[in-house]
Amino acid sequence: MPQTQRTYVKLSEEKRAQIKRWQEQVKDELPDLANRLHLATKAAEEDTFSGELRRAIHASGLTLNHIADRIGATPTVLDKFLTGEGVLQTGVIDPLVALLGYKLVGIDKVSGNTKAFVTYENDRDPHVTIHRAGCSQIRKRGGEHKYSQGAYNEHDSFREAECYANSTRLRVVWCSYCDPKHAHTA
Length: 186
Description:
By secondary structure, this protein is α+β, with helices and mostly antiparallel strands. It has 2 domains: about 15-100, no CATH class; about 115-185, no CATH class. Helix content is about 45%, strand content about 10%. A 4-stranded mixed β-sheet has the order 3-1-2-4, covered by helices on one side. Strand 1 and strand 2 form a beta hairpin. The longest helix is centred in the first third of the chain and has 32 residues, at about 15-45. It is extended. About 20% of the residues are buried.
């Protein structure tokens, strides 16, 4: 294994002073940042629409600046929402949900499914079918295949269901009854 070579650079007094100021600034801000992280974690754990929206923002990987710019809000408004210290105006929620690729979906009264889409993998006839949650084709079998020749998986978004289906390397089919490929744009 090759040895790592270290390079030493002599810093000017001005640079050392700048680094020292930055270290002090980080030291001063760290407790507040830790507290804000704690608040954001607690707010995202809420079993509410706002909690779900916070989790979607965190999972998106997008920066607050990018999201704010795209939805017409400020990063401060988003930050306060994420920590539970503020709310979002209704004019911001619709573009935010669209940006994140989400759609409000009710709970299926039969299955209790709260996910927006379901994929069915058929082992006997190798393919994956993407359904909207609550599709009659899923309900008629109760979400289970009686001959154990397939499996159902739930997904939060059409994009997630489609990515999963493509990852199986099986033929992908969209249910002709519920038309899921148009559900995410409705």
